[in-house]
Amino acid sequence: MLAGLGGALALPRAGWAAPSFPAFLAQLQAQARAAGIPDSVVQATTGTLVPNQQVLKLDHHQAEFTLTWAQYSSRVLSQTRIATGQQKYQATQNLFAAITSRYGVSTDVMLGIWGLETNFGANQGNFNVIDALTTLAWDRQSRYFGGEVIKAMQIVAAGDAPVANLLGSYAGAMGQPQFMPSTYLTTAVSFAGNGAPDIWNSDADALASMAHFLAKAGWQADEPSSEPVLAPSTINVAQTGRENTQTIGYWEQLGVQRLPGAASLPSSMPAALLLPDGPGGQAFLVYQNFTAIRRYNPSDFYALAVGALGRMILS
Fold this sequence. Notes:
By secondary structure, the protein is α+β, with helices and mostly antiparallel strands. The chain contains 13 helices and 7 strands.
């Protein structure tokens, strides 16, 4: 669940042998210098690197499994996570209100992303980002990861964060929002406007950066991303799915029922009907903001879980 990473981790491994790590590293260092990175930063960040064996192990042995929505949601929408989110919200209500006022992004979606990405900042990863990205760039022969190494060097060169602070997942996603270095450079913000964004230690900067990402992705203020509904068993499955947008009124005419307490929305609002586990399972209407969440992580399950977690925390 990595903002800016997209489908990179799903790419097939390169079909050719990688060059030696020292040779690859020398090429990468030359590219960094050509991009304007001072030699002192290049040496400080990559001068003593060797392949990170733990990164290689995790990358080579990614679990291959398929979960149903019922299985996935039961894992990520635990009562423990919901309770933690409620405690976090109680402690930061004023902060959420201020961020919503500035960016127009609702509290529930920020809570949902915060909870799913790093369990509200508790599980950010402890890999040195430049180390991890360089290892992946070499092993995968990946221009994408190589470019992210150089972006991470730019963060260091700008004085935004020292190398020791660039910690994250084995795939290079950083801080509480799990931003890739390129996303940090284009999207992370200092909420107070003082200094560089600290998405690792500052809840304000982390949440504001998430909100900024969603605002740039087209978030519509005062609109939900999704909502659970009741769908008749006779619904034509061919009409469902994100790409089949109709209106709320259209779905209601087909027998889809919105639940008590749902947001007041015009019947003309565009909506798609999702049946993540097929007929007989849960059903959701999804709106434009659902697409904005999928810019953060291009998974229907993820976007549905973000909406559900936020609703559960605030209910």
